[in-house]
Each structure stands twice: as C-alpha cells, then as structure tokens.
Amino acid sequence: MGPSEPADFGNVPKGVQFREEDYYKSIRMRYVLGVQLLVQYQCEKLVEEFKVHPIICGIAAEVWLRFVAAKRVFADVWANDVIKDAEAQEEKYRVGSSFKYKNEPRNLYRERMAIIWCKSLKKTLPLSSSLAVSFLACHIAREAVLPTDIMRWAIEGKLPYFGAFPRIVDSIKQIERTHQCPSITCPLEANYMFRPLRALSLQKLESLAASIAQTTGLNLPPVNFCAITSRYLKQLSLPVEKILPYACRIQEWSMPPELWLSANELRIPTRVCVMSILIVG
C-alpha cells in the first residue's frame, strides 16, 4: 500500500509499501507539530513585536502539551476509534479521484482514512486553538492583551495564523531532516492541513480559551483589571491617576463573575465588564 504524492512535504519513493499505521502516525504527528509551531510563532511575535513578557512562551508550551495530552490523540486506540466513529455517521469524506488516491487505506465505505483522521484532528485540536492558547498564556501572565487584539493582529497578518502554512511546512521539513526521520506517508497538502478557513468570533476565542483551561485543569485568575483599565483610559485620553483608583475600588468591592473567562459563549465578555466598571468609575 503506497501513498499518493504529497505536494508540500516531498516525493514518495515508487514501489514502497506502507501500512495503515504509517499513515495515521505521520498525519497525526505532522498535524500536532504544525499547530504547536503555530503557537510558538504567535508567542514569539507577541514578545518581539507587541512587547508581551517572554514568560508567555513557557506558559503556552505547558498549556499546549497538557491540552494535547488531555485530548488523548496519541492513545493507541485513537486511529481505530476515529474510523469506527466515521463509519457510524452519515458524513462522508470522499475527496479527489479514486485513481489518484487508489493506494491509500480506506474504510468500509471506501472513504479515505487520511481525510477522516485529519478531520478528526482538526475538530479535536482546531487550528484556532493556537490563538486560544496564545491568548490564554497572556491571560495567565497578567498581560493586558484582549481577544480583540489577538483576532485583529491575526486578520492583519501581524500574528501568524492565516498565512503561516508555508512556514510550517519549512519548519517541519527542517525538524525531520535534523532528526533524520522524514515522514513520507502524509498524502495531505499543508494548505489543507494548516490553512484556517475563517476567523473566530471574539467571544468564541474567549470561550475556547476558557474551555482549554477547564480541559487542562487550570484554575484561572480574573482578568488584570487594573492593567486593562489603564490601557482603556490612555486610549481614551482620560486622566489615569484620577479615574483608575475609583474604578479599582469598584472592582474590588463588586468582583463580578464576568471578570473571569467563561466557556459559555453567551455570557458577557470580560472586556465589556471591565468597560462597564470603568464607566461607573
């Protein structure tokens, strides 16, 4: 059994036979590594360009590893369970002509297992989780970085996300060359694996970050009210020294639950809560 030619990651030797296990291990490792690289790129950019404290790099790395471990995508039964679940559902994964992908492993319905495994990974560890982990690291580090910042920088291309897949390919190739373990059984293009289709809503980003924190067992602090309020006051050209003390007193007295990240997308965003207290102050 041999894979179709992966245009991004290199050519496949002709006549080489591969097992089903070779396919899913290659796809899984490349996808997880690719999203991990996204987190790394984003944290590096936050530190270098947006002057966020470098501690976020270590925080993000730990959160990401705990998130991957909690999702159990490296469990021995993962690949088989994904295929069984796909066969039990109505959704179909047929992509491309049968001739081009004829040597790839397929399930009972002749669907490409490579696509099924990749779609499962993208659902379990979505590309957007890289932005959520980066934002979560800033939150834990008590930085005054908001979901609006993360998404605006990503959309503007200042934060690696939408157009990062060519760089991911180059990095994966370099890593594989360094460790002398090139994986040639990944028949999926980087454009399909690592290019986001759409932007997250601001509330989805915040709720996803909270969900990751819950999944990894993190006990999060509230947002850094003083830092965010001070930032708002400066942006509005208002006297920080006059208004900030009153706003902080109101916050300390009330401590509304909306100052904590929530996995509930319908709840009031933390930034709205901060602004409402600031208006009262």
TrEMBL record:
Tagged with keyword Methyltransferase: no
InterPro entries the record matches: Rrn7_cyclin_N (IPR048540), TAF1B/Rrn7 (IPR033599)
Start and end residues of each Rrn7/TAF1B N-terminal cyclin domain: 35-165
Entry-linked Pfam families: Rrn7_cyclin_N (PF20644)
One annotated Gene Ontology cellular component of this protein: RNA polymerase I core factor complex
Record carries keyword Transcription regulation: yes
Keyword annotations: DNA-binding, Metal-binding, Nucleus, Transcription, Transcription regulation, Zinc, Zinc-finger
Single GO BP term: nucleolar large rRNA transcription by RNA polymerase I
GO MF, one example: zinc ion binding
Compartments where located: Nucleus, Nucleolus
TM region positions: none
UniProt family annotation: Belongs to the RRN7/TAF1B family.
Protein name (Swiss-Prot/TrEMBL): Rrn7/TAF1B N-terminal cyclin domain-containing protein
Natural source organism: Saponaria officinalis
Source organism phylogeny: Eukaryota, Viridiplantae, Streptophyta, Embryophyta, Tracheophyta
